[in-house]
Write a structure and sequence with these properties.
Largest sheet: 5 strands, antiparallel
Helix content: 40-55%
Oligomer: single chain
Number of helices: 11
Strand order of the largest sheet: 1-2-3-5-4
CATH class of the largest domain: Alpha Beta
CATH architecture of the largest domain: Alpha-Beta Complex
CATH superfamily of the largest domain: Aminoglycoside phosphotransferase (APH), C-terminal lobe
Number of strands: 9
Number of domains: 2
Length: about 325
């Protein structure tokens, strides 16, 4: 007796590049399309679209990853920055108007946007000059986004988003590690109290990229273009700065490059000592946020690599961050 094929649904599919070129890219205001290639997978999927007139990036959001308002806010931010002269991967309009296309994927409806492709390559951060240039570029995003508003609601880069929600995702993975769970729970509460201990009115608050780790930007002909604003939102600008410091610490380049990043940033835009005093706390918060992101999206990103070694590494980083914050608290 022949066996019947089982029909299994998808939770996160890889879409056909040829069909995307024919049926989706064709709906946007680009001409003479040469190719559409699956380019990168992260929290979303990116396809590189090549035309006779330049390159573009087709982003396909995972099902239920972002709401319509979330994406409209991101698009508003990109358009605002582009109109102000910022070098960003700005959105491309559909021929029928609007920017978002909805497609029916095997797992359900997914949203799609098309942006200009950020030409060039990421800085390698092998020299202090790279950090200084990136600091200048980051400061320009903050400076040029001043005054930005959107009618679309999007989550804020606040304690709820950066600490409370990630901790909820982390807890099941630490259920058998009582000492670690107690530490991260108490540490996260302390961090939240530090951040909320000063009114936002006294701090640098505004539009943030949300993922300024240094590699969501390409340099081409000496100019830096930012892309991937998927984690953007309103928040304290110190978080954006801390994200780069966090990245440098992971790469063991903090001592050499952080002062130059800050020098570059401050050559374009002022930031107060009060704001900078929150950077260390936000370095730890960034790690908690990312840990929660990985664990909360493990069904799509895979669970195998979130093992005991992963948790060991993250807890080591957070305990060291706690020691740095303690040392800062007692220093004159």
């Amino acid at each position: 007796m022949a066996t019947q094929d089982l029909k299994i649904g998808a939770s996160y599919s890889t879409l056909c590049a040829v069909e995307l070129q024919d049926d989706v890219v064709s709906q946007y205001k680009v001409t003479n399309v040469l190719s559409c290639e699956f380019w990168a997978r992260g929290l979303n999927d990116t396809y590189k679209v090549s035309t006779e007139n330049g390159n573009f990036a087709l982003r396909i959001y995972r099902k239920n990853w972002r709401t319509q308002d979330d994406i409209e806010f991101e698009l508003d931010g990109l358009a605002y920055l582009h109109n102000k002269g910022a070098r960003v991967a700005y959105p491309i309009e559909r021929k029928m108007g609007g920017y978002i296309t909805h497609i029916s994927a095997p797992e359900g409806i997914r949203q799609v946007i098309l942006t200009k492709y950020a030409e060039g390559v990421a800085l390698k951060y092998e020299t202090p000059t790279d950090a200084e240039k990136y600091g200048q570029a980051a400061a320009k995003i903050h400076a040029l986004s001043s005054g930005f508003e959107s009618k679309h609601h999007r989550y804020k880069l606040d304690i709820r988003h950066l600490i409370t929600e990630p901790i909820r995702e982390i807890q099941p993975y630490l259920s058998h590690r009582e000492i670690d769970w107690q530490f991260i729970r108490e540490f996260s509460t302390r961090l939240a109290n530090i951040i909320t201990g000063v009114s936002e009115k006294n701090l640098d608050y505004g539009f943030c990229h949300g993922d300024f780790h240094g590699f969501n930007a390409h340099e081409h002909s000496g100019k830096i273009t930012h892309f991937d604003f998927d984690c953007c939102g309103f928040g304290l600008r110190a978080y954006d700065l801390a994200t780069f410091k966090w990245s440098l610490r992971l790469g063991k380049k903090e001592a050499e490059l952080w002062p130059m990043f800050l020098k570059g940033y401050q050559s374009v835009r002022d930031i107060s000592e009060l704001d900078l005093s929150f950077v260390e706390s936000f370095v730890a918060i960034r790690d908690i946020w990312l840990m929660g992101l990985h664990m909360g999206n493990a069904n799509d990103l895979a669970k195998g690599w979130i093992d005991e070694a992963y948790v060991d590494e993250r807890m080591k980083f957070l305990r060291e961050a706690s020691e740095i914050i303690n040392a800062e608290a007692i220093s004159p």
